[in-house]
Design a protein that fits this description.
Blueprint lengths: L2 H42 L4 E6 L13 H4 L8 E5 L3 H10 L3 E3 H8 L12 H16 L3 E5 L5 H11 L2 E5 L9 H5 L4 E4 L2 H10 L7 E4 L13 E7 L6 H12 L4 E4 L9 H9 L3 E3 L4 H7 L1 E7 L4 H4 L6 E5 L4 H9 L3 E3 L3 H8 L5 H12 L6 H9 L1
Parallel strand pairs: 1-2, 1-4, 2-3, 4-5, 5-6, 6-7, 8-9, 8-11, 9-10, 11-12, 12-13
Length: 386
C-alpha cells in the first residue's frame, strides 16, 4: 500500500468512526432533551420522589420482572423515573409507557462527554454523580426508591447521604460478597424476599443490623395444568460457557427433553448460543419469564452456573442443580450446601435427572430458601409510603 492509499484509508477509517460517534451523540442528545422536559414537568408539579429501574432490550419497555413485587405498587405519575436502558427502541417504548422519564445512560453520557482522563481521581461515576445530584437539588428530592443495581448503588446512596434523602431499595438477585457496592452502602429501608436473604444481607453488610429490612415474602404461584414437559431447563448466566456446556447439552438432548433460557439482558453475546440451539433442534426461550414457561411446560430441574434462578426453581415445582466452576459466586453457592452441585459429567447428571423430583424434596427446598412468609402487598405499601 503506497503512502497516498494509506492516507486515504486512514481518512475513511476516521470518518467512519466519527459518523458512529455522531449518531450516538444525536441519540443521547434527543434522550437528554426528553429527560430535561420530564425534569421541568416534575419541577412544575413539585414531585419530590425519584424512582430508579432497569429495562432490558427487546422487552417493549417492560421493567425488570425481578423487581415487580415492588414496582407494581409504585405510582409513576408521582415520581421522576430514571430508567437504565441500553436499547434505542426499548427507550422509546419506556417514554411512551411511563410518565416523567429520565434516561440514566444519556445523563451518564453527557456528564462524561469531555475528556478528563488526566484527572486521575475524577472518575466517570463521580461526574455522573455530580450531574444527578444537581437534578436532585433542583427538584428538592426527598425520597429515592431503587432496585439494587450494583452499577449505580454507590452513586445514588452518596447523593442521598449528602442531601439527607430517604432511600428505599429492593433486591432483584442473590447477594454475594463479590459485589463490593452492597458491602459498603446501605439503604434506609431494604426489601428482601425471605429470612434466608435477610440473613445473607446482614452477614455481608453489618450496617443493615440497624436498618429497616422488610421481608416481602413469596407469592403462592399457580400454574396451568400441562402435559408438556421439560426434564432440564438450562438457565444461561454470566458463567455459562458454550464451549464447556455444548457437548453436555447435546448428549442430554438425545435422551431427555432439554431447553435453554437466555439471561434477561442477552443481546449480541448470545448469537453463538442461538446458532447452536437452532442447529441441534433444542428448545429455547429468549424473552419468556419463568412463569410463562411453567404455564406451558412442567419442568423437573433447573441447571445453571451462578444464576439466582437456581434459588427460584422450587417456586416453579423444580429442583436446582449448579454446575461447579471457578467463579466466586458459584463457589459460595456450592459451599452453602443448599443447592445440589455437580461437575460437567454426563453420566452423573443423567442419573440425577432420570428421577422425577418428589413434592417432599421441593417443599423442603422451598422452606430452606423462602420460608413460610406469604407475599403481603399491604406490608410493601406501608413501608413504601410511610
Amino acid at each position: 500500500m503506497n503512502s497516498n492509499k494509506k492516507i486515504e484509508y486512514l481518512k475513511n477509517k476516521v470518518s467512519s468512526k466519527n459518523k458512529v460517534n455522531f449518531a450516538e451523540f444525536l441519540i443521547h442528545l434527543s434522550f437528554l432533551i426528553l429527560s430535561f422536559i420530564s425534569i421541568l414537568k416534575c419541577k412544575i408539579t413539585k414531585i419530590k420522589t425519584c424512582n430508579y429501574s432497569i429495562s432490558f432490550p427487546k422487552t417493549k419497555g417492560i421493567i425488570d420482572f425481578r423487581g415487580r413485587y415492588i414496582t407494581d405498587h409504585l405510582n409513576f405519575r408521582k415520581s421522576i423515573n430514571f430508567f437504565r436502558s441500553t436499547s434505542y427502541l426499548n427507550s422509546i417504548m419506556l417514554y411512551i409507557k411511563y410518565p416523567n422519564v429520565v434516561f440514566f445512560l444519556s445523563i451518564h453520557y453527557f456528564a462524561n462527554i469531555t475528556d478528563k482522563s488526566h484527572l486521575k481521581n475524577y472518575s466517570k461515576d463521580v461526574r455522573t454523580q455530580n450531574f444527578v445530584k444537581k437534578i436532585f437539588e433542583y427538584l428538592k428530592i426527598r425520597k429515592l426508591i431503587s432496585i439494587d443495581d450494583q452499577r449505580v448503588m454507590s452513586l445514588f446512596l452518596n447523593i442521598c447521604k449528602q442531601l439527607k434523602i430517604k432511600s428505599l431499595g429492593y433486591m432483584h438477585y442473590r447477594f454475594n460478597k463479590k459485589y463490593e457496592k452492597i458491602n459498603h452502602n446501605a439503604f434506609d429501608t431494604f426489601f428482601v424476599w425471605s429470612k434466608y436473604f435477610k440473613k445473607r444481607l446482614i452477614k455481608i453488610n453489618k450496617q443493615y443490623v440497624n436498618k429497616n429490612v422488610v421481608i416481602s415474602g413469596v407469592e403462592n404461584k399457580k400454574f396451568k395444568k400441562t402435559k408438556k414437559k421439560i426434564d432440564v431447563l438450562f438457565v444461561w448466566d454470566l458463567e455459562s460457557n458454550l464451549t464447556k456446556l455444548g457437548n453436555l447439552i447435546q448428549n442430554l438432548n438425545s435422551k431427555f427433553n432439554i431447553a435453554v433460557k437466555f439471561k434477561p439482558s442477552s443481546q449480541i453475546d448470545e448469537k453463538k448460543l442461538l446458532i447452536f440451539l437452532k442447529k441441534n433442534n433444542i428448545l429455547y426461550f429468549q424473552n419468556k419469564s419463568f412463569s410463562e414457561i411453567r404455564n406451558k411446560y412442567y419442568i423437573s430441574y433447573f441447571i445453571g452456573c451462578s444464576t439466582t434462578a437456581l434459588y427460584e426453581a422450587c417456586l416453579y415445582d423444580a429442583l436446582p442443580i449448579i454446575i461447579k466452576n471457578n467463579s466466586s459466586i458459584a463457589k459460595e453457592i456450592v459451599s452453602e450446601g443448599i443447592i445440589k452441585s455437580t461437575k460437567i459429567n454426563f453420566k452423573k447428571i443423567s442419573s440425577i435427572i432420570k428421577k422425577k423430583p418428589s413434592k417432599e424434596k421441593i417443599i423442603i427446598q422451598r422452606k430452606k430458601i423462602w420460608g413460610n412468609i406469604i407475599y403481603n402487598k399491604k406490608v410493601i405499601i406501608q413501608n413504601l409510603y410511610k
